[in-house]
Amino acid sequence: MNILYDERLDGPLPTPDRTALLHKLSIRVPDLQILHTEEALKPYECDGLAAYRTLPLLVVLPETIEQVQRIMQTCHELNVPVVARGAGTGLSGGALPLQQGVLLVMAKFNRILEVNPQGRFARVQPGVRNLAISEASVAHGLYYAPDPSSQIACSIGGNVAENAGGVHCLKYGLTVHNLISIEIVTVEGERMTLGNDALDAPGFDLMALFTGSEGMLGIVVEVKVKLLPKPQVARVLMASFDDVEKAGLAVGSIIAAGIIPGGLEMMDNLAIRAAEDFIHAGYPVDAEAILLCELDGVESDVDEETARVREVLEKSGAIAVQIAQDEAERQRFWAGRKNAFPAVGRISPDYYCMDGTIPRRELPGVLKGIAQLSEKYGLRVANVFHAGDGNMHPLILFDADQPNGLETAEALGGEILELCVRVGGTITGEHGVGREKINQMCAQFNDDELELFHAVKAAFDPKRLLNPGKNIPTLNRCAEFGAMHIHRGELPFPELERF
Amino acid sequence: MNILYDERLDGPLPTPDRTALLHKLSIRVPDLQILHTEEALKPYECDGLAAYRTLPLLVVLPETIEQVQRIMQTCHELNVPVVARGAGTGLSGGALPLQQGVLLVMAKFNRILEVNPQGRFARVQPGVRNLAISEASVAHGLYYAPDPSSQIACSIGGNVAENAGGVHCLKYGLTVHNLISIEIVTVEGERMTLGNDALDAPGFDLMALFTGSEGMLGIVVEVKVKLLPKPQVARVLMASFDDVEKAGLAVGSIIAAGIIPGGLEMMDNLAIRAAEDFIHAGYPVDAEAILLCELDGVESDVDEETARVREVLEKSGAIAVQIAQDEAERQRFWAGRKNAFPAVGRISPDYYCMDGTIPRRELPGVLKGIAQLSEKYGLRVANVFHAGDGNMHPLILFDADQPNGLETAEALGGEILELCVRVGGTITGEHGVGREKINQMCAQFNDDELELFHAVKAAFDPKRLLNPGKNIPTLNRCAEFGAMHIHRGELPFPELERF
Q1: Domain holding B383: CATH number?
Q2: Which is the most buried residue in A95, A244, A483, B77, by most CB within 10 A?
Q3: How far apart, in whole angstroms, are the C-alpha atoms of residue A352 and residue A366?
Q4: What EC designation does it have (chains A, B) (predicted)?
Q5: So what's the ipTM on this one?
């Protein structure tokens, strides 16, 4: 199915006795819903990275923390790997099942346990949708800040596992910055609280370590999140540019002017046209790039910043700057951006969504590099960015029905990510490593660093039963992956000149 | 010297061959400054927690990262424990030397390597003073936000080790929130970068794990920090109260009104009088408590928030609200607060500075509890708080020359911390655990949690050579500590009613 991932490189997983497992689970975990027929397992064969599919050994759908504890105890005893799954919206295959493993689906943990306006927090179960937290808090004038584009569907447990971002994370931080504490169940079935009401808890910061660990350290069973007061005013400016690099430079100039926008997003012409055609957001379809810049806070403050941002944009060569005139227009401007992925899906049989980050100053050069790679591979690339924090989402358009369709797209994607690493960036911004980018991790980290990751993993999960084969590659994989590169006549890190 | 810490509970440390170590270091690390005479070692026998003193085996003062690597390689090979020390201002004994260990003093790493106004970061060596970073950035209108009261003297490497806070961390975050990446040397002498320019780096978040780990995971050799634009305006309100609990309630009301002040500090009458007598800050010496509330941002915004905070304070029962009329008065108001510790030092032969945190809502009840404990032990307690984030600094006044002077103060301090834990808080806010609070960690965490800490520690330092006996107690220590408590007729956690 894909050229880059080869399961054998991670070494064999134990082959569990499915019948014995089913039997033990049914005895030890009363009332647990277990799916085991092929028909029932089918809907769980992939997450949001649909190019990778595997039927799990079993699916379990616990409803209580005690059930999760007993499931983990049982699997631990029988050496059965466990993959946890939230809403399954993840784009890097972090919740891709294992043929030899149990898929632990947290969908039934869907209750909001407490919204506390005085303490400005909410306690929720991990299956609660991201947006539902804000909806439950709106009566108090509060909201939960991190807003991944999938926020209608994605769950907070998955957000913790991936340390999810969103268009507002430049100003309001990632998931980890908006958590107070999390309840987890360990691989051995112990219950534990990580984090604390205090700003700085004593001991090692295991909550920060756990957040973004992609299901490799434990199972999230409850989350206590911070709630923020809704800004009095939010205003969006849309600037059009006749040149992508000018738009890239404008991003740096806004930040350098001492303004931290609530959101600062960029789209190139291909993305603009696709979104406009789908959403009718009012985007300028002839522009080579647009920037969307949201300012929020108290009104007088926003007025002043709006004037300053407009000035910066005009000095940076914007050909037009438009301010959303009312809330409806503001929502339309954002709807175009938030629906950019499905919009691109309408103009191409398939697309492959990348997720790399780069230092902001490298934006113009990397855009040029992507254009060159697009030409080299003969595949169109639409660019959508969380520009403010240098997080890019190049969308590679391809046709999986063509010979080598996916393979070519993956190879192009791999080169884009390696370009990100070369300019000092990373292979993932907010979508995680999962299964998808396991090989690129070999480019991001050296053996010493990977060994340290594995040692930390072993501190939580010495038997390596939690989500094996994701996130942190084995040294063996990296050695083989490097060898494959050389075998094809290319070094993984040719000493290329920078763009 | 102190009743609460007993070194034997951690098991014996290896007894190194001092002569062999000296010999190897002098061969392997050319040009390394080594101190080994009693006279030369004496100045390093304690850090800011001067009640605990130990002469180290040796003091080394490296100047380059390569020297640090070779020192670590040598100590690792010879099984010699290593304690790193920054400026030695820490208040929990985190840099207290070991008789059997090398004290690695980072004072010579005192260069600012880069101030980058476009990228809004500074790269500095770990021995650079906290305030020096802001001083070097002021020409660009930038500053480094975390501002511990010791910022004139404390070093950024120590700030990383302790995850230091300060009066502005409520709004601007702790050290960990203001770091981009750190360079470390591992116990085996390997060099490694933790963190990344990207907002969310792939792999486990080892930078967050490392920050606040109190020298137990590695040695910080370079730090890349975020710089923020200096706020246009900063304004301080001072509110006086005739009742400590009313002041405590006002804190919650300010936060509940949707305002996040740049700083929100509280002092009680004893602290007010001591500070006023020392600094002549203009504090109302008859008030039972004062709140200092700083608002910063653009002028119009600050004007509006000032009016709202004044209203909240008056509604909360403030008997007077005063606004600093100019920058000089603002600096005076803060000088009183920042010098509260030395001010208390003038009115008592000795004082013991505590550092606990509690949920904000528990502030009034805990203040009452501290007053009761103060009476029980017959020792005065001055209260100074980072009220906004629930971080308390009760200062216990005592006379070490009295029989059992320190022991009584420590026992009172211990009870205050246990009170913090009982109401859902922690035993340390920003000063760290170090040597001082190692026993209270047994109250904060259970065996499963401590085991996990030790497993994480072992991932970085399997031989346990880095700062042993600090921060994370051994299970043996906690078992014995519990037993001692019971032996004295007191359970560590009597099921007391909450205040």
Answers
A1: 3.30.70.2740
A2: A95
A3: 18
A4: 1.1.99.14
A5: 0.81
